[in-house]
Design goal:
238 residues; alpha/beta; Rossmann fold; seven-stranded mixed β-sheet; three-stranded antiparallel β-sheet; 7 helices; 26% helix; globular; disordered N terminus
Length: 238
């Protein structure tokens, strides 16, 4: 049974699915805060994107049933329908929204360095038993975590994921960008994502391949996928 802090998450039982989008977000306006939104409202336009990382993630679990998957893009009928249609369970959490709610009062990144606030956030947003999940769709959230919260969050992933399970994360390739786009990720099929621009945000930090490898050094392996746009897809094996 889920504890009370998880009443916002979605648990769904089994029920009976164009190539690279080359997404170019609109230029941001002046004075953008870490949480400011520019461009079309979330969910206003969906851009299809071929995803090698997503395709590999589902290839790894092909033939399995009854797995438990974590989705940090927030609850969506498309993700719920696709995952449960494969015979799995899905827990959904809008991690960016939870991040803003927990640390948005004052200095967004400085707040993420306070140990008590970090622990409270993880208890609210990732409070699961050891080895609870068979896979995680983390998407682009890690770029918006200050180093202390980032380390604690990755450690929590290591705790709640089963050994030999897989995690899909997405990073921006522009390592010096002052603002990056955040998206809602909707699964169209096992190799296609529908992306909806949520906002332009100031990242806490951006990652090259070596930095991603260091970030997941406690995990068994990290695999990168080349793309034609500004996003870098990564599959991490627990």
């Amino acid at each position: 049974m889920l504890k009370e802090p998880w009443k916002r998450s979605t648990r769904a039982g089994a029920v009976g699915r164009p190539r690279d989008g080359g997404l170019s977000p609109p230029p941001p306006g002046p004075g953008v805060s870490p949480r400011s939104s520019h461009g079309p409202p979330a969910q206003s336009r969906l851009s299809p994107r071929h995803s090698n990382g997503l395709e590999q993630f589902f290839a790894y679990i092909q033939g399995e049933r009854g797995l438990t998957i974590l989705d940090l893009s927030g609850a969506s009928q498309s993700n719920i329908g696709f995952i449960t249609g494969l015979g799995h369970k899905l827990y959904s959490e809008d991690f960016l929204q939870s991040l803003d709610a927990a640390f948005g009062d004052g200095d967004f990144f400085a707040n993420q360095c306070a140990p008590q606030r970090i622990e409270g956030f993880l208890q609210q947003s990732l409070n699961f038993p050891e080895g609870h999940f068979d896979g995680a769709l983390v998407w682009d959230v890690l770029e918006h975590l200050a180093p202390p919260l980032l380390k604690a969050t990755v450690d929590r992933f290591c705790h709640i994921l089963k050994p030999r399970s897989y995690l899909l994360a997405i990073f921006h390739a522009e390592e010096r960008a002052e603002l990056v786009s955040t998206y809602s990720y909707r699964i169209a099929d096992a190799r296609t994502l529908l992306l909806s621009l949520r906002s332009m945000r100031k990242p806490a930090q951006l990652f090259n391949n070596r930095a991603v490898e260091r970030l997941f050094q406690r995990f068994e392996s990290v695999k990168f996928f080349l793309t034609r746009d500004h996003l870098r897809e990564v599959i991490v094996k627990r």
